[in-house]
Amino acid sequence: MTITKKKDGTVLCAAVSGRLDTSTSPEFEAQMRPELEGLTELVLDFKELDYISSAGLRVLLTFQKQMNAQGKMTIKNSNEIIMEIFEVTGFSDILTLE
Fold it and tell me: 27, 56 in Cβ contact below 8 A?
């Protein structure tokens, strides 16, 4: 998994590539959590994300709850596999997907 972050004031865009699963989710959370302080918008670009497990979904839910309190979170460019996972798990109703 690779995370490429670009911050512009209180907006953070993070492109995530590879797999967001049990082995990579703790690293993803550890790298992203400090960045969330003071943000008004978090944009996650999943164009290069190949797979997301329940561990990855848990981290997204945690981030969504925090961002609901201070702004918004958007997930962009998810492929068909990721979108199907979001739909089957009901996350498509919770997350803002573009």
Answer: no
